[in-house]
């Protein structure tokens, strides 16, 4: 029951759902996710922390950078089922297509440059 409630609560926010779906395009650093959603770094970090605690994302640290990705195939069945349900339910959502297009541009920008821009804001 606890696992289900954690997953349900994590997916009860539109930004978190969009973050999960953005990670279908591959591993992203916090700066890339911040740029995509136009939110404060602290807000993005809070959302990612909630997703991490629910098991919906995994992390990898590389120096001062933290990268987020969808969980591996060995993730609990409830997590895999929830991610599959989200993806299937929102496959035709136009906002997600816009997110994918923006993400392509963002991934072509050096993360260090993104971070510098965000620190100046």
Give a quick precis of the structure.
The protein has 121 residues and is mainly alpha-helical.
Explain how this protein is built.
This protein is mostly helical and 121 residues long. The protein has a single domain, classed as Winged helix-like DNA-binding domain superfamily/Winged helix DNA-binding domain (Arc Repressor Mutant, subunit A, Orthogonal Bundle). It is built from seven helices and three strands. A three-stranded antiparallel sheet has the order 1-3-2. A hairpin with a 2-residue loop joins β2 and β3. α3 crosses α6 and α3 crosses α7. The longest helix is centred in the last third of the chain and has 14 residues. The radius of gyration is 14 Å and the shape is globular. The N and C termini lie far apart (42 Å). The mean pLDDT is 92.
How far is it from the N-terminal to the C-terminal residue, by CA?
42 Å
Give me the CATH superfamily: Winged helix-like DNA-binding domain superfamily/Winged helix DNA-binding domain
Structure class = mainly alpha
CATH T-level topology = Arc Repressor Mutant, subunit A
Shape: globular
Weakly predicted, low-confidence segments: none
Number of strands: 3
Strand content: 5-15%
Number of domains: 1
Average of per-residue pLDDT values: 92
| Count of runs of 4 or more consecutive helical residues | 7
Largest sheet: 3 strands, antiparallel
Please trace the helix and strand order, writing H or E for each element.
Answer: HHEHHEEHHH
């Amino acid at each position: 029951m606890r696992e289900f409630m954690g997953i349900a609560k994590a997916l009860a926010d539109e930004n978190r759902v969009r973050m999960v779906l953005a990670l279908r395009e591959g591993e992203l650093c916090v700066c890339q996710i911040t740029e995509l959603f136009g939110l404060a770094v602290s807000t993005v970090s809070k959302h990612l922390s909630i997703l991490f605690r629910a098991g919906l994302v995994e992390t990898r640290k590389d120096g001062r950078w933290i990268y987020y990705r969808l969980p591996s195939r060995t993730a609990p069945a409830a997590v895999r089922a929830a991610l599959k349900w989200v993806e299937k339910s929102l496959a035709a959502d136009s906002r997600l297509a816009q997110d994918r297009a923006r993400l392509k541009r963002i991934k072509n920008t050096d993360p260090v440059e993104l971070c510098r821009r965000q620190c100046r804001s």
